[in-house]
């Protein structure tokens, strides 16, 4: 399958100057990623508490997460047309500070619909950071240290996603969810202010006025490229499955036959450490064995791991969750790399469309699978995710065969 294309680096930063600033910009990028993803999935681990307090079912409680990621998708789509007009540092700073203020405000939401509205706007704002941080790194960092700073971005995303969930779960158990949201919001506000104060200016940014007609044609070209389209759909399946498992596993673990306390449930998010290992493993394996084979392997691992979530014993569930998390991050790392490399000079458009599908998959599937669980139980829920993973394997297989046939 013709997934591999040449990578082009565009940064024109002086290497000597950038080596001096790599710690500073690396820390700032880490804080941006931490703040963004600590806020985006803030309410995921406390969905059972939201369901109790607002008297709603599990599927309805997922709106607190789904509308955040829906807002992220809307923001990313808008960013395709507007993000290149505004200074990268200014956009990231405004996004982090304003979204943190909304996270603090959400702790005072007395009605669930108010919480959903705040989270939707927050998701749109967070897209301002997520959509341009990679471009900010590419423009302001010399290629010699690009890998180091990029790894700080990935680390910030992972640490933010993990620590935000753990802290929220623990504080909700000890105090209540309002205190948890307020605490995370204040911490993320500090991260945003520190980024605005210390991050290097966007010295190499040049505003670009986007021609909407040309951009839409460019998007159509990407959507018509079968290998790219398969990656977009795969991204939706991947995050849809991943978010669904972490959305609803807490409901299962706090009830019979597990009856686990919130401190133990919080520890499941330590599985994100395996996700970081999975990302690295995905890159290494795809270099050795090719993109298609490695992606199929990761999806099959996800499929098999799902069945370990069925027993009423914590050991197979923990093992299954670990393998599932490892495989998801491995598959996502490969898919996003393929998207970024396929058409080098239109990379921003490819990445934006991929993330659009990615977060739409999270929003839609994260709620639909909750409806399945609410009406038909945990086994039906796991079966629905297994079907999605199988569809991903089938998609890659069919696209691989058609691409090879067309190349003959």
UniProtKB/TrEMBL annotation:
<dbReference type="GO" id="GO:0022857">
    <property type="term" value="F:transmembrane transporter activity"/>
</dbReference>
<keyword id="KW-0472">Membrane</keyword>
<dbReference type="Pfam" id="PF07690">
    <property type="entry name" value="MFS_1"/>
</dbReference>
<feature type="transmembrane region" description="Helical">
    <location>
        <begin position="63"/>
        <end position="82"/>
    </location>
</feature>
<dbReference type="GO" id="GO:0005886">
    <property type="term" value="C:plasma membrane"/>
</dbReference>
<feature type="transmembrane region" description="Helical">
    <location>
        <begin position="25"/>
        <end position="43"/>
    </location>
</feature>
<feature type="transmembrane region" description="Helical">
    <location>
        <begin position="94"/>
        <end position="116"/>
    </location>
</feature>
<keyword id="KW-1133">Transmembrane helix</keyword>
<feature type="transmembrane region" description="Helical">
    <location>
        <begin position="351"/>
        <end position="372"/>
    </location>
</feature>
<dbReference type="InterPro" id="IPR020846">
    <property type="entry name" value="MFS_dom"/>
</dbReference>
<comment type="similarity">
    <text>Belongs to the major facilitator superfamily.</text>
</comment>
<feature type="transmembrane region" description="Helical">
    <location>
        <begin position="266"/>
        <end position="285"/>
    </location>
</feature>
<feature type="transmembrane region" description="Helical">
    <location>
        <begin position="223"/>
        <end position="246"/>
    </location>
</feature>
<protein>
    <submittedName>
        <fullName>MFS transporter</fullName>
    </submittedName>
</protein>
<dbReference type="InterPro" id="IPR036259">
    <property type="entry name" value="MFS_trans_sf"/>
</dbReference>
<feature type="transmembrane region" description="Helical">
    <location>
        <begin position="378"/>
        <end position="399"/>
    </location>
</feature>
<keyword id="KW-1003">Cell membrane</keyword>
<keyword id="KW-0813">Transport</keyword>
<feature type="transmembrane region" description="Helical">
    <location>
        <begin position="317"/>
        <end position="339"/>
    </location>
</feature>
<feature type="domain" description="Major facilitator superfamily (MFS) profile">
    <location>
        <begin position="21"/>
        <end position="404"/>
    </location>
</feature>
<feature type="transmembrane region" description="Helical">
    <location>
        <begin position="294"/>
        <end position="311"/>
    </location>
</feature>
<feature type="transmembrane region" description="Helical">
    <location>
        <begin position="177"/>
        <end position="199"/>
    </location>
</feature>
<keyword id="KW-0812">Transmembrane</keyword>
<dbReference type="InterPro" id="IPR011701">
    <property type="entry name" value="MFS"/>
</dbReference>
